[in-house]
Amino acid sequence: MWYIYRDVLGAIMEFSKSFYPNEFSGLLYCKGTIISEIYILPGTHSNENSAVLRLDLAPMTLSLKGSVHSHPSGFGNPSLADKSFFLSKQINIIAYYPFDLNSYRAYGKNGQEIFLKIIERNTLKNKK
Q1: What mean pLDDT, rounded, does the chain reach?
Q2: How many domains does the chain have?
Q3: 56 with 41: CB under 8 angstroms?
Q4: Considering the domain boundaries, does residue 56 fall inside one?
Q5: Contact call for residues 68 and 95 (beta carbons, < 8 A)
Q6: pLDDT at 116
Q7: What Å distances lie between residue 41 and 45, 78, 119, CA to CA?
Q8: How are beta strands 25-31 and 34-39 bridged, if at all?
């Protein structure tokens, strides 16, 4: 099972709102199966239909296990391009308009929708 801290999901929604009407995109830093931080790559370019990540500027760590991006259109379904990118990450989140804490979907590397449990920090202290 995958988990995300409530404040991280809130930050994703705030970034998505601030980039609107363009897409927001970033990587997810994980401690085990807990999404604990968002990493925004320098040089990321976005418009209303897509976002381009400069993956060559990502830090060399095995903890960047996921991706996140927004769909300003209001739909949380992945495109073919999304599904292709998902293959490189274990967990992928699509935030969609209106960007509240219920406006997201999570997907595994093969594009299957998966459950993402929202937790408070320190809820799973010993889980790594």
Answers
A1: 90
A2: 1
A3: no
A4: no
A5: yes
A6: 98
A7: 10, 21, 25
A8: antiparallel
Round to whole Å and give the CA distance between 117 and 3.
Answer: 5
Best CA proximity match to 66, nearest among 87, 88, 40, 92 = 92
In a domain, 51, yes or no: no
Round to whole Å and give the CA distance between 61 and 39. 12
Rounded Cα gap, residues 105 and 109, in angstroms = 13
Reported as a single tens digit per residue, the pLDDT across 25-70 is 999 999 999 999 999 887 777 767 777 777 776 777 889 999 999 9
User: In DSSP terms, which residues pair with 30 in a beta bridge?
Assistant: 35
Q: Does 128 fall in a domain?
A: no
Q: What is the CATH number of the domain that holds 40?
A: 3.40.140.10
In a domain, 71, yes or no: yes
What is the DSSP-derived secondary structure letter of residue 40? P
What residues make up the domain containing 98?
2-44+61-119
pTM over 0.85: yes
Res. 73: pLDDT tops 60: yes
pLDDT top residue among 128 and 9: 9
